[in-house]
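We give this protein:

***
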Amino acid sequence: MTNYILKTENLCKKFKNQLAVNNISLSVKENSVYGLLGPNGAGKSTTLKMITGILRATSGEIMYNGHPWNRNDLLNIGALIEAPPLYENLTARENLKVRTTLFGLPDSRIDELLEIVDLTNTGKKHSGQFSMGMKQRLGIAIALVNHPKLLILDEPTNGLDPMGIQDLRKLIRSFKDRGITVILSSHYLSEVEQIADHIGIISNGILGYEEKINPGQDLEKLFMKIVSENRKVG
């Protein structure tokens, strides 16, 4: 029997007269990396914001770990959506100390997180002086503070240089070994292809495709086909 950590059923989000997310039904397998692909403005971020409680769904249902989603589930969900929530006048360690204090966690958790995201040697350098890639990794560390089972990353490689992308790719792939399921959104096909086990392709607010990634699959051709079809629907 397949275990799904997250499922959505006919999820919709309407802003005034605009239907931004149109009956999306996602199925995310436990202990996997799920890539949510789509062009800019497709509805990816809106979908992830509903899953993380930032936005309220207009209609539809979100199931987490076999039960209807409720706000208590956020204790098991970590997220990095838009810019990393950093105090730029604080070091990496101090940023994490703020969060571990809120959750009543020991300082040993800070050491664990710094090691996971490879920021152990940043010392007294303020996070405002970090490179974009380092800021992203610190943002992920903050999202991991409370030992989440599900990690949601919205366009995590945006603005990164090739080295930063490579580091982040390696980090994301390592989470499965830690028992963490990852949902990441992107419009970079090659990035998702190298990281994800399963993909969903969303365009014009519609989920047009959801399946396991197959070796040798022409993802670009598939992506363009789905996007084109959903534009016609719109």
The longest strand covers residues 4-15. The chain has one domain: 4-233. The longest helix spans residues 219-233.
